[in-house]
Design a protein that fits this description.
It is built from nine helices and six strands. Bound molecules: zinc ion.
Length: about 240
């Protein structure tokens, strides 16, 4: 922004303010830089970054925004149903941003290949309970089998609770938990993956329910692709 100002002043041959004066005036006007949401989808990111004005994009963007509103309404309805009937559960699930370990400011770590840790969360809209399923790339991948296994574990838990109906939303912006887990992981030095479980368990603000963390082991991951091939015939290209 300052660079743009410098080139504009130079082009107009006007006197230039120092960077610190520029910053002070910028702040005194109450202006801020908009930070991009990391979980924005491709269409929203294109709108924010490029702001295309061609008709085909605008039509697609409008449809996308209409769908967003509709999904929000459906989610609200599901939440209401769950609040009125204890046998109904409404939840959103999301795979969080990868956390690499070891995570430290020590310079010797900067050039090392680090281990990717995955955190899949399921947030109960009614009870506000948050479950985190944790594993790293040495344990399993982050494919359909792993995600399905986490959801299956959740469904088993709900089944034993007496829940009869589960409404699940795949959501990119659970928001709160994503932020607090990331904030904690940013502040702390994490040397081994097992530290993550403890960190996440205590990541939530005081007064709120703590996260329940499940550490996924290789034996937990079910080969759903093989299992479902016994039950469902393949209609298209199967690999
Ligand atoms: Zn979007």
């Amino acid at each position: 922004m300052y660079n743009m100002y410098v080139s504009e002043m130079a082009a107009d041959k006007k006197k230039l303010a120092s960077r610190s004066l520029y910053n002070n005036i910028f702040k005194s006007l109450g202006l801020k830089f908009f930070a991009l949401k990391k979980d924005a989808c491709g269409i929203c990111l294109r709108k924010i970054k490029e702001n295309p004005t061609d008709e085909s994009f605008l039509t697609m963007y409008q449809k996308h925004m209409d769908e967003k509103v509709k999904v929000r309404q459906v989610k609200e309805e599901a939440k209401k149903m769950a609040s009125e009937n204890p046998k109904i559960c409404a939840a959103v699930f999301d795979l969080q941003q990868v956390i690499y370990t070891p995570k430290s400011h020590h310079s010797s770590i900067f050039y090392k290949r680090r281990l990717a840790n995955y955190n899949f969360t399921i947030f109960d809209l009614q009870s506000q309970e948050d479950r985190c399923f944790l594993w790293h790339e040495g344990i399993a991948r982050r494919g359909a089998n792993e995600i399905s296994t986490c959801i299956y574990k959740f469904l088993q838990e709900k089944d034993s609770d007496g829940t009869e109906e589960v409404i699940l939303f795949c959501d990119g912006c659970v928001g709160q938990n994503k932020n607090s887990v990331l904030k904690v992981s940013k502040q702390s030095e994490i040397m081994v993956p097992s530290q993550l479980a403890t960190l996440i368990q205590t990541a939530r603000a005081t007064g709120k329910k703590q996260y329940t963390v499940y550490e996924i082991n290789p034996v937990d991951v079910i080969d759903w692709k093989r299992y479902t091939s016994h039950w469902f015939a393949c209609v298209g290209r199967c690999t």
